[in-house]
């Protein structure tokens, strides 16, 4: 029998990549529920996907890839537990996993993937650890991708995730939320996680990935909808859902036919999803009508509502956008918020004013590609082409998204 053709290899690679995007969280969540150990779940899932590459090339892609991966991962996990169960108590503990005993109660949340998020977002963990761990376990993001999202070194991020898993295991944190009363204490961390999962999908940082990963944006929206069902009066949950919907509505116009990201002012607004925009606007209006001071996600949603209300980029109410950023700065005085506010200020007061603000952020945002991209654009608009080219070069060097790299390269090359 001859070797599999190159086309077969490419087809299997595509199938495994697609399955990883669609099934990783489900497989990990299923194993976490059964084995109660995040390390076992993650490593067994990774082994199953590695096995899929070999087996699917030889036997073909199965009709139900998710089922195949889950079954294979469970076998890998059982093999691992048996290897580690070498004596007494460990052997006794391991026996639990080798029988089809009734699963423990799921608590207040029935969805397995959402329970996984809440497990990783336990209050016993530091907020940064909650977010990083969930991005790894739910989104299947690599440590390098998560490190880029946090603007930290890959080694440091790997250690953070390892410590978080160890703490969950040592504290015997259960894979469930005991009651609905426990939800509000954890929801802030959960929303932070889902926001970053969505952002990773909307501007994917991984090498050799599509510029936009709809699987991640769709999963973040799905889980946020579930949380809104559980906590219908939580303003920030509604705000985050509105923010996601208004951002997702623009996705059809986000990438050009050549795979280049399209900036907001150049997008075909006729291609935007009007149903998602209407739903997002309704959520924003409901929060405004509540009379309760808005939080971070509600303000970001309101900013997006202003953008999606304009039929043309020239009709954008930039004074309202800046006023909303002024509110946001008061509750989130981060350099990234200051950067985004300055970009809006440029539309009101001109690029020179905005540039002066952005230059003061350089020490804190030098490793952030969007800082250099914004600075390059403002320098271009002020006629400082040489400095603009240098800034574009730095942004291209730091950008991890293929579509964004193509966009920045074109803008740099237009300088002549």
TrEMBL record:
GO terms for molecular function: DNA binding; sigma factor activity. Coiled coil: none annotated. Residues 26-86 form the RNA polymerase sigma-70 region domain. Residues 118-167 form the RNA polymerase sigma factor 70 region 4 type domain. Residues 186-286 form the DUF6596 domain. GO terms for biological process: DNA-templated transcription initiation. Keywords: Sigma factor, Transcription, Transcription regulation. The keyword Lyase does not apply. InterPro entries: DUF6596, RNA_pol_sigma70_r2, RNA_pol_sigma70_r4_t2, RNA_pol_sigma_r2, RNA_pol_sigma_r3/r4-like, TPR-like_helical_dom_sf, WH-like_DNA-bd_sf. Pfam families: DUF6596, Sigma70_r2, Sigma70_r4_2. Belongs to the sigma-70 factor family. ECF subfamily. This is Putative RNA polymerase, sigma-24 subunit, ECF subfamily.
């Amino acid at each position: 029998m001859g070797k599999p053709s190159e086309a077969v290899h490419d087809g299997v690679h595509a199938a495994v990549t697609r399955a990883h995007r669609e099934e990783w969280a489900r497989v990990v969540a299923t194993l976490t529920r059964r084995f109660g150990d995040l390390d076992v779940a993650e490593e067994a899932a990774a082994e199953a996907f590695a096995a899929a590459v070999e087996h699917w090339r030889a036997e073909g892609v199965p009709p139900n890839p998710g089922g195949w991966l889950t079954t294979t991962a469970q076998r890998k996990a059982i093999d691992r537990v048996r290897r580690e169960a070498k004596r007494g108590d460990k052997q006794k503990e391991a026996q639990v996993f080798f029988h089809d005993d009734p699963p423990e109660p799921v608590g207040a949340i029935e969805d397995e993937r959402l329970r996984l998020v809440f497990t990783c977002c336990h209050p016993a963990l530091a907020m940064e650890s909650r977010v990083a761990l969930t991005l790894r376990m739910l989104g299947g993001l690599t440590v390098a991708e998560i490190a880029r999202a946090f603007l930290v070194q890959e080694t440091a991020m790997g250690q953070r995730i390892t410590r978080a898993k160890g703490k969950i295991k040592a504290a015997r944190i259960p894979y469930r939320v005991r009651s609905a009363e426990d939800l509000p204490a954890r929801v802030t961390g959960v929303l932070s996680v889902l926001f970053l999962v969505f952002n990773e999908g909307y501007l994917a940082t991984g090498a050799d990935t599509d510029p936009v990963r709809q699987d991640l944006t769709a999963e973040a929206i799905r889980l946020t909808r579930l949380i809104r069902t559980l906590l219908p009066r939580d303003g920030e949950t509604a705000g985050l859902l509105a923010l996601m919907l208004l951002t997702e509505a623009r996705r059809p116009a986000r990438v050009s036919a050549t795979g280049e990201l399209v900036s907001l002012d150049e997008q075909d607004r006729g291609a935007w999803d009007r149903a998602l925009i209407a739903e997002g606007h309704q959520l924003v209006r409901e929060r405004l009508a509540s009379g309760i001071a808005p939080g971070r996600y509600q303000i970001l949603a309101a900013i997006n509502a202003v953008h999606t209300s304009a039929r043309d980029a020239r009709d954008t109410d930039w004074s309202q956008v800046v006023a909303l950023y002024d509110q946001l700065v008061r509750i989130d005085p981060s350099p990234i918020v200051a950067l985004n506010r300055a970009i809006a200020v440029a539309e009101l007061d001109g690029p020179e004013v905005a540039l002066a603000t952005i230059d003061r952020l350089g020490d804190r945002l030098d490793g952030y590609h969007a800082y250099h991209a914004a600075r390059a654009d403002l320098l271009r608009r002020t006629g400082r082409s040489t400095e603009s080219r240098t800034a574009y070069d730095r942004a291209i060097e730091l950008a991890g998204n293929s579509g964004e790299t193509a966009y920045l390269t074109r803008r740099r090359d237009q300088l002549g």
